[in-house]
Amino acid sequence: MDAWLSNPFVHGLVYGVVVVTALMTVTAWSIWFERKFAGRMQSRTGPTLVGPYGLLQPLADALKLLQKEDIVPKDADRVLFNVAPPLTVLFALGAAAVVPWGPEQIAADLDVGVLFILAMGGMVVFPVWIAGWASNNKYALLGGMRSVAQGISYEIPLVMAALVPVVLCGSMSVSDIVRFQLEHGWLIYSAPVVGFLAFLLFFLASLAEANRIPFDIPEAESELVAGVTTEYTGMKFGLFYLAEYLHTLVISAVASALFLGGWGGIGGLAPGLHWMVLKTLLLFGAIFWIRWTLLRFRADQLMTLCWKYLVPGGLALVMAAAAWVHWGAFAGTTATPAPAPAEQGAR
Amino acid sequence: MLETYLPMLFIFVIALTIGAVMFFGGQLIGPKNPTPEKMMPFECGNDSQGTAGVRLNVKFYLTAILFVVFDIEVVFIYPWAALFKSLGWTGFATMLAFIAALLIALAYCWKKGALEWES
Amino acid sequence: MEQIGFGIISACLLGAALGVVTGKNLVHSVLWLAVTLVTTAALYVFLNATFLAGIQVILYTGGVITLMLFGVMLTRRDERVMVENEQNGRRLWIAALAALGLFALLAAATFKTPGLPRTQAEPTTTDAIGRAFLTEHLLAFEVLSLLLLAAMVGAIVLARRHDAGADARGGL
Predict the structure, then answer these.
(1) Which CATH number is correct for C1-77, 2.160.10.10, 1.10.3470.10, 1.10.10.410, 1.20.120.1200?
(2) Residue boundaries of the structural domains of chain C
(3) Residue pLDDT, tens place only, A246-285
(4) What is the DSSP string of A190-254?
(5) Which of A67, A91, A108 is where one domain is finished?
(6) Among B39, B90, C155, which residue's Cα sits nearest to residue A81?
(7) Interchain CB contact of B103 with A (< 8 Å)
(8) Fewer beta carbons within 10 Å, N or C terminal of chain A?
(9) How many helices (H) does chain B have, and how many strands (E)?
């Protein structure tokens, strides 16, 4: 049995199935959760009819989408129009491959894990742009162009924010970064101001890349009909919807690993996996909370925020992190985990 | 090698498969009843005006250039960041100079109004 | 096992590259180019150069392809940008000759350069790359930043001049 399981193919297949199934399931029911949550925030009850507490609502939604007519508009680029929805799902899920869910539960422990996450994040804009272009619709095209402009702009602060843990921990492997945090405390507080600000920056830029409110310009239903998804019907629209939630879930997991100590828990109350899942879900919930609280930015405000505030801020953060390491707190802790605790007074 | 990349490959394959299954499921189950009106580009109920080939703002292109330049610079900081701790003062100073060039570039863009989107 | 993987990826790479040159639609060609670049990154992974692979995807696929797509969007005149792939004999011959010459040149250079890995190499650690940047090639590294600065200045000058023109209006 053991020999059979350690066959790389079987091992890989099991990992792939488990990770993807878990993420898909959480995503499906997060849609139920969001509707309930939004309902409560607006003094409604949310879905109640399908199953107890409306718990079967995601299944009903999926069945409904499956029964809708599939329309490809006249003059659309058929192939690209059809390729885009599955591709969004692929790129939204991709980064999950290097997220460590526990000390052992990591699909691919790359030595350049952080770069891989950023690369996947950068690829997400392509299916969206393809969808906008292939639709042969003005609104869809504008949505696609905006989406790419926004995606690439926010990629810069994202790369800078992800640079901070790399500087602080001296490694690009996500699991190394988590292990460093187990040793020295979560980055969000162990490098007091820098860590927290970097976390905020990472979170904001990720939200922008996942096109979530307050950054959901590509959809902007009040000005662009439904943005890139204008011409999509039935399950193809459903795939875009799914990909957006999947992406949000994956970035929650990435942020938990990079800044919130990953699988590290408080006092060994539960195995590492539980802590990681808990942190991920809390962040994921926080994103819903933000979504139903804030309004959407205007497209130009969005770009201004990125280039005039977040980019210089990100650069300053990187230098601050370098200075923080240089003058004390974590110095000399790369190779041998030094017993000396982080000196809070060094600042 | 295999142990590292096979799980990743399987995640990709399974993600694509799920996407494809949902995609074809929708095509199989859904009704097919195309009418000329239904196939028109959607413009809130009006007939479509002109083509989708609207002339786009040159700002988009400028943003892409800014992105490429900044991205190259920031990505080159990564190898430095990973071994920063063992480099000491020289490493710190080197990177300060590198980032200073980046800041000058940003300041220039700002001054020239390349970051303004309002107009 | 790795040979099979290498074969599959190389086949994809060649197929995508063919897609780039034979496509009639400019946007399709650019997207095939994106596939080509990603599969090249996969080849880097086979050579154990993971950092290079990451950079390849982030910079080339993420950045340069976007730039090309935007360029196409800016310059297109009609609904779909078509390029004519003329199949006339003389041009085909010239192109084939040029391609062959380039191939011979690259092959010769590859075989003459000592120390290139023929199969899977020792992992090139990011550490080594960073160290090379900051010690041996320090000057090149710093000059690179100035070069990028110059590129940016040039881009802005060109774009601003275009902006002053009459048809600079367009949707955001």
Answers:
(1) 1.20.120.1200
(2) 1-77, 125-165
(3) 888 998 999 988 888 878 777 666 677 778 888 888 888 8
(4) HSHHHHHHHHHHHHHHHHHHTT-TTS-TTT-TTTSTTGGGTT--HHHHHHHHHHHHHHHHHHHHH
(5) A67
(6) B39
(7) yes
(8) N
(9) 4, 0
Give the Cα separation of A298 and B45 in Å (integer): 25
The answer to whether residue B12 scores a pLDDT higher than 90 is no
Same domain, yes or no: A93 and A204: yes
Instruction: Summarize pLDDT for C136-149 with one digit per residue, the tens.
Output: 777 887 788 788 88
Q: Which of B5, B78, B92 sits opposite A326 (nearest CB)?
A: B92
- Which residues does C60 contact at the CB level (< 8 Å), separation at least 6? C37
Run of H or E residues at A1: none
A8 contacts on B by Cβ (under 8 Å): 2-3, 6
* Rg of chain A (C-alpha set): 21
Handedness of CA A35, A37, A38, A42 (dihedral sign): positive
The whole-angstrom distance between C51's CA and the closest CA on chain A is 6
CB contact under 8 A, C62 and A111: no
pLDDT above 90 covers what percent of chain C?
A: 14
Q: What pLDDT was estimated at residue C86?
A: 55
pLDDT of A175 strictly over 80: yes
- Tell me the Cα Rg of chain C: 20
Residues 6 or more apart whose Cβ sits within 8 Å of residue A3: none
Of B12, B23, B78, the CB nearest to A85: B23
Chains that touch A (3 or more CB pairs under 8 A): B, C
Q: Do B83 and A170 touch (CB under 8 A)?
A: yes
Q: Identify residue A318 by its one-letter amino acid code.
A: V
pLDDT band at C37 (very low <50, low <70, confident <90, very high): very high
DSSP A172: -
In terms of residue numbers, what domain contains A9?
Answer: 1-67
Instruction: Give phi and psi for A344, each to the nearest 5.
Output: -75, -30
* Per-residue pLDDT at C125: 67
Condensed to tens digits (0 to 9), the pLDDT of residues B34-51 reads 777 777 776 666 666 666
Whether A308 and A170 map to the same domain: the answer is yes
Query: Residue B48 has what pLDDT?
Result: 65
DSSP C152: H
Average pLDDT in chain A: 80
Tokens (6 digits) for A87: 């591709």
% of chain A with per-residue pLDDT over 90: 1
For residue A256, which of A278, A286, A279, A281 has the smallest C-alpha distance? A279
CA A245, CA A249: separation in Å to the nearest integer?
Answer: 6
Q: Give the type of residue at B32.
A: K
Whether pLDDT at B52 is above 80: no
